[in-house]
Design brief:
Blueprint (H helix, E strand, L loop, with lengths): L1 H11 L5 H20 L11 H48 L5 H29 L9 H4 L5 H57 L1
Helix pairs in contact: 2-6, 3-4, 3-6, 4-6
């Protein structure tokens, strides 16, 4: 019974569980500190330094692309929901401007409230995605260092390693919030479709 109630609640009101959210935040802070304070021990042979540097640069770029893609989707959710809510408001004006049964008005108000709640949740998690937080990038100080060719490559690889590890938890947290924004976005879209069907039925069959 509890499992069924849990599934029903997840269907109507999905949650990023508080303990998971706290674990993500704590992990984020812990990994950031560890990544900044620890110097990675490189086991790479000199003849493999060029390949390792190339692979680290590729991993760094892929992680940055993942962050940008996550933020782009969050911004898209916010923009499309804003347009959809404008259409719903216009539909409300169309319905309420006629002589209609009180039941239709109450249903319209209820659906509008549910849509507003789902919209707010979508925007909330999207904003969490778009928060910058502590994000590390390769700086001039990481590049402007002394040493021979191999030592220089090792230092750059170490900088890449620390940056990638420092950003990993932040990016994972953004992805988790995007998942929640997407869940509420889907429910908001369902409510909008339901509302559109109600408007269609009212206009043509009542």
């Amino acid at each position: 019974m509890n499992e069924k109630l849990h599934k029903l609640r997840e269907l109507v009101w999905p949650l990023l569980e508080e303990d998971i959210n706290n674990d993500i935040s704590n992990q984020c802070l812990t990994e950031e500190v560890e990544a900044v304070e620890e110097n990675p021990v490189l086991k790479i042979e000199d003849e493999n330094l060029d390949l390792a540097l190339q692979l680290q640069g590729k991993i760094y770029q892929e992680e940055d692309d993942r962050r940008k893609g996550t933020e782009s989707k969050a911004a898209l959710f916010m923009g499309s929901l804003s347009l959809a809510n404008t259409i719903v408001i216009g539909a409300n004006t169309l319905i309420w401007g006629k002589e209609i049964p009180s039941g239709v008005v109450k249903t319209s108000v209820f659906i509008s409230i549910v849509l507003a709640i789902y919209t707010l949740r979508t925007v909330w998690f999207s904003v969490k995605v778009l928060e910058r937080g502590t994000y590390h990038v390769l700086s001039n100080e990481d590049i402007n260092i002394s040493g021979d060719k191999n030592k220089y490559k090792r230092d750059i690889i170490s900088s890449f390693f620390k940056i990638i590890k420092g950003n990993e938890a932040v990016i994972n947290m953004k992805v988790s919030h995007l998942v929640m924004a997407q869940e509420y976005y889907k429910r908001a879209m369902f409510v909008i479709c339901l509302y559109a069907f109600m408007v269609f039925y009212f206009c043509f069959f009542l």
